[in-house]
Known about the structure:
Helix content is 18%, strand content 34%. The chain has 163 residues and is α+β, with helices and mostly antiparallel strands. The strands form 2 sheets. The chain has a 5-stranded mixed beta sheet, with no helix packed on it. Strands 2-5-4-6-7 form a 5-stranded mixed beta sheet, with helices on one face. Helix 1 (67-81) packs across helix 2. The longest helix is centred in the middle third of the chain and has 15 residues, at 67-81.
Amino acid sequence: MNLDEMIKVGMADLKVGKSPDVLTTLGLGSCVGVAIYDPVTKISGLLHCMLPDSTQFRNNSNKAKYADSGIDELVAQMLKLGASKVRLVAKIAGGAQMFAMNTNNDTLRVGERNVAAVKMKLSELNIRLLSEDCGLNYGRTVEFYSETGEYVIKSVGKPRKVI
């Protein structure tokens, strides 16, 4: 694979691409990597969101930081490229509990809350969630292949996973 076709998505960032592009983001801990895809046009997008809800913050100008506004923005950019809203499907990864804490304090359970917020937003937009690799206690690096719709998950000390 040509690394020139690898589009890097930073933390609190989003990018869109089209086959043969590969979208990648590193180090998903409690963050969630949301891959959205139109299988006909092969237009894809990847969001690396850090927090569940933009409405909880005053300075929320970075839409990609939050699950709700990030997914809205990602879909808008994909539609501009020619994706069809009715064909969009999603795969998600991340949302880990990175620190061992036996707590019911929701503010510390960011990963769980991020995954729940992503699923709620996808459901609101009628985007079907095809598969997920979320939770547990380890970080993930992901690659989303626009050509095939494969979402590759890599974690230290774990087998490579394709969802």
